Each structure stands twice: as structure tokens, then as C-alpha cells.
Amino acid sequence: MRYRLSAAVLAAGVAFPLAAQATDLEVTHWWTSGGEAAAVAELAKAFDATGNKWIDGAIAGSGNTARPVMISRITGGDPMGATQFNHGRQTEELIEAGLMRDVTKVAEEQGWVDIVKPASLLDSCTVDGKIYCVPINIHSWEWLWLSNKAFEDAGVEVPTNWDEFVAAAPALKEAGKVPLAIGGQPWQAGGAFRVLVTGIGGPDLYEKVYGDKDADAAGGPEMAKVFDAVEDMREMSAGSNVQDWNQATNLVITGQAGGQIMGDWAQGEFQIAGQVAGEDYSCLPGLGVNEAISTGGDAFYFPTLDDETESAAQLELASVMLDPKTQVAFNLKKGSLPVRGDVDLEAANDCMRKGLDILARGDIVSSGEQLMNQDSLNQINDLIAEFLATPDMTTEAAQERFVDIVASAK
Asked: Can you give the CATH number for the domain in which 323 is found?
């Protein structure tokens, strides 16, 4: 896949003219950390340039906190102008209820089917042939972020794979470091678990379990190896004592922790802190074992509104979000990859380039949100969080419960 920005593409960036009547448009999302706020400001700036006004509706906390609030407002008759959801199946019921408008007109006029890569991102927005969202980025969970300083202080080399990281844990502890930082929220535990499934078990196992809901694979010997790695994760993360993901990232930034399994949005925090990839921190996609990344990320949906001016502004916002300049400015600060395959990312750092190379090779898996509904994912999140917090729970017991969840997953 090539990432180049031509003059023709720039000239064709925004297909829709400025609104005849500008308006305010409330946009809800859960991007509240330093890096996330810097990125969302780029979206707001681009939309404000159309003459309309981005009214920021940030909801503190994770997506698990924000989504119920967003859904409640939409179903309760108090819709916002646009709202963030993840790529996948989180809006199925809202679309079926007629509460989300389709933006097929914009998509067709701008040729989204030709520029959005991989195609699965636009597929996630499509219901019965109509497009209901604009994909904004590609976020991948499959990263192990490492503090170069922490390993230097511990007197060991920066690991190049998961096994080396586990082997370095005693030295990190001896140096007063937390080997692996994990926040206390279940979604972080569940996300790290999926990374272990892909990295240790391999992409095929991941797709069987999360995509095919194969209970036999979930209970098999390859998954048992994954749960052994989860036990290592439990031992290495003891003492993290933080709640939010960006607090865990800060432990890595400040050299108090050796590493963190977290999505590439963590790069926004490293950037805000002035850290340089390859110098201050290192990154291992796929845990340095199976270098594959998921094509998850974020999309914006547009609730059905009665106001014609606001409805017109919704289409302008959809158009702006896929403008080449907006894609570059937003994703460089977010740490994510653009959904357009034709934009210039010369400013990408070492870790982003690793992600681009993996994406270009086609070594990708679907995100958990694209494969399972949110209820099933939450059950897995809760199980792994309980395992990490319960030292006497055996891997065998955890795997048995995991098999039950997968068997009934949708």
C-alpha cells in the first residue's frame, strides 16, 4: 500500500461546498487524554474552517463509559450531531431502529469505496447497502510499548520479543520497576488478552476463537499456552496500582514500568511527553512474535436530526473527516494510521512506519469489535480482569470459563 499525497488529491479533498447557513454541531467522543485531545483538536479545526462550529462533547472515561451515555441520548430523543463509536457492531440496533442517518451520498461523491483501505472498514459502516459512518482511523491493539530507560536502569537489554520481556522481569523488579503496567479497567485486561491470543497463539487461532466462535479452539492446547502467558502477565503487572490506560502509559514514559500492552493510541502520550520512538521508547508489534495488527479504530456516526441546517452540517463533517489534510493532521497526533491509502506520512515515526509496513504486507486481523458483539467482549474483559486480580485462580479454571463465553458468543 502506498501512502502519497498528490496535488490532485489535495485539490479534490472536500467535495461539499461551505454550508449556505453555518451552524453549531455537537460532537461526542471519549478522547480526553493529552494526546487524544491534541488529535481531536485537528478535527475541530478542520470542521470550523467550513464556517460551522464544532461543539465538543467529550465524555471522560473509556468507550465503555461513554457509549451508554451516547446511546441513551440518541434513544431518548436528545441526539448529538455526530458521535464516535468503534469500527464494528456497536451501532447495529440504533441503525435498525432508524436512529442513524446514512451518508451514502457523501461516500459515493467522494469515492470512499476506492480510497478507504482496508475495505473491511467501510464494510463495518455498511448495512443493507447503505453507509452509516465515516471511518476516521485504523487503531491496532497489538503493541508492546517499552521504556528504554527502565531497562537501562535494570541493566538489561531492551527486549525484542515477549519471551525476552518475561525473562527481564526479575531484573526490572530488582531495580524497583513494575515490569508490566496495566490499568484497572476490564477493557484494558481484555484488550491485552486479545494481543496475547494473536501474538502468542497466532492470527489463525485469534480468528478461530473470536471470528468463528470455535469453542474447541478456545479450549485447546494452543489457547492453554496463551493462558500461561496471561499468568506471566498477572505476575508482571502486580503493583501497577493505576486505573486509567494513560496513567499506565505514563509509568512507561517516566521509566517506572518496563512496558505496557496497549493500542497505538499510546503513541499520542509519548509524543505529548516529547519522547522519541527508537530512542526513549521501543515498540514490538505482535509482541515481537507474530507481527500482525488489527484494523480496529474509530468511526463517526450521525444521528437522525430534524433540523435541516444541522443535517447539512453533518454531511460536511463527514466530508471533512476524510479530507487528506485532515487525515494526516489527525492521525499523526493520534498515533493511528489513516484510512486513506493515498496520503503522505513522511513525518511518521519509527513505530508508525512499522505499522504501515505491516498494513502494506496485509498481515492484518479484524478487531474484536468487528468479530464479536459488545456483550460477549465485556464478558471476556471481566473474566481476564478477575483473573489478574485473583492470584489463586488457575489458568485451567479461567480457560474453562473462557470456553463457555466463546461457545455462547455472538
From this structure: 3.40.190.10
11-26 pLDDT, tens digit each:
334 444 444 589 999 9
Alpha helices in 29-147 (DSSP H): 34-48, 63-75, 92-96, 104-110, 112-115, 119-125
Non-local (6+) Cβ contacts of 85 within 8 A are 63, 67, 70, 91, 133, 298, 299, 300, 301
SS3 of residue 99 by DSSP: coil
Same domain for 74 and 84?
yes
Residue 3, φ and ψ in degrees, nearest 5: -120, 90
Pair (290, 349) in one structural domain: no
Angle at 289 between CA 284 and CA 295, to 5 degrees: 65
Q: Which three cell numbers stand for residue 337?
A: 494510521
Pairwise CA distance, residues 323 & 330, whole Å: 11
What pLDDT digit, counting tens, does each position of 147-183 carry?
A: 999 999 999 999 999 999 999 999 999 999 999 999 9
For residues 158 and 146, the answer to whether their CB atoms sit within 8 Å is: yes
Q: Please, what is the average pLDDT of the chain?
A: 92
User: pLDDT for 123-141, tens place per residue?
Assistant: 989 999 999 999 999 989 9
Side chain identity at 161, as an amino acid letter? N
Q: Which CA distances in Å does 388 have to 189, 200, 383, 384? A: 8, 18, 9, 6
Same-domain check for residues 213 and 330:
no
Buried b or exposed e, range 258-289, using 16+ CB within 10 angstroms: bbbbbbbbbbbbbbbbebebeebbbbbbbbbb
Cβ contacts of 84 within 8 Å, gap of 6 or more: 27, 28, 29, 30, 31, 63, 66, 70, 298, 299, 300, 301
Are residues 66 and 160 located together in one domain of the fold? no
Question: What residue numbers bound the domain in which 75 lies?
Answer: 7-138+296-361
Pairing of strands 298-301, 82-86: antiparallel
d(CA 282, CA 147): 7
